[in-house]
Amino acid sequence: MSNASDHPLLKPLADFLASFDHAEQAQATPLEVLFALALSFGLNCLIAAVYKKTYRGARYSQDYVHTLLILGTVVSVVIMVVRGSQSTAFGMFAAFSIIRFRRSVAQARDIGFIFLAMATGLAVGAQAYVLAILTTPTLCALIWLLGSQNAFAPRQLSHVLRIRVGNDLNYDKAFAGAFAEFLSFHQLDSVETVQAGMITELRYQITMSEAGRLNAFVSKLQQLNGNNRVLITTAGESSATD
Predict the structure, then answer these.
(1) Quick one: CA torsion of 219, 225, 227, 232, rounded to 10 degrees?
(2) 0.90 surpassed by pTM
(3) Sorting pLDDT into bands at 50, 70 and 90, what band is 24?
(4) Are residues 119 and 195 in the same domain?
(5) Same structural domain for residues 142 and 176?
(6) Of residues 166, 171, 167, 164, the one with CA closest to residue 186
């Protein structure tokens, strides 16, 4: 009686399933295990140091940094366990699929560091030592460079300027020189008439070129607007003055 697995259409599938039963798990030597653990832990220490150096939030967590070290190293151990055995790999995948990272991630970049630590551990556990040694320091250097240069940061407004001028004053030309001298950025937000239409009040969002020259900037504006009212508040306080 012929076996169903001998059918030409089913034989490839049978061979694929049989490969799980005959796969032999590669046994790592004690020296290899110690080297992999030391390398994985060292590279993840580098990742943790870069995370701490480039962190800009107000909720830095030592527990999270320790988690990066533990997670990256444990992934190396897991990969060494499943290496060479597809059946064990599928079993470990099923076990880890029910485990969730039970911590609220404060910043989106924290997720990126989790994946970086896991990728490093995976490369070391898979014996891709050259890949791990080259990519992890390179990525850490790029992350540090982005953080030190404050790359892709949004424009930060330093102050809100309110200034009153006469209705006959061409304020665009009158303040152009002062704005160019003292400001790195300015944007006119609103123009409003006050005091029964006798005075025009302008509202700007501004960024000072040098914070220490604020008094000189106010004095310059008062000279240009005929000593009318000049009010400057910090950007965070602008809503309180409305």
Answers:
(1) -50
(2) no
(3) very low
(4) no
(5) no
(6) 171
Residue 222 falls inside a structural domain? yes
Q: Is residue 17 part of a domain?
A: no
Tokens representing 138 are 């390179």
Q: pLDDT digits over 81-127, tens only? A: 877 665 556 655 555 554 555 556 667 889 899 999 989 998 998 88
Residues forming beta bridges with residue 163, ordered by sequence position: 202, 230
Residue 238 above 90 pLDDT? Answer: no
Of 9-13, 133-137, 190-194, minimum mean pLDDT range: 9-13
Q: Where would I find the H helices in the chain?
A: 11-22, 30-54, 62-82, 86-96, 108-125, 129-148, 171-174, 176-182, 214-224
Q: Tens of pLDDT along 131-182?
A: 999 999 999 999 999 988 877 766 667 789 999 998 888 888 889 999 999 9
**For 158-225, what is the HEC assignment?**
CEEEEEEEECCCCHHHHCHHHHHHHEEEEEEEEEEEECCCCEEEEEEEEEECCHHHHHHHHHHHHHHC
Cα(160)–Cα(236) distance, rounded to whole angstroms?
9
Q: List, in sequence order, every residue forming a beta bridge with 165; answer none if it has no partner.
A: 200
Whether residue 174 sits in one domain with residue 125: no
**Is there a single domain that holds both residue 187 and residue 74?**
no
CB 134 within 8 A of CB 177: no
Inside any domain, residue 80: yes
Whichever domain contains 196, its CATH number is 3.30.70.240
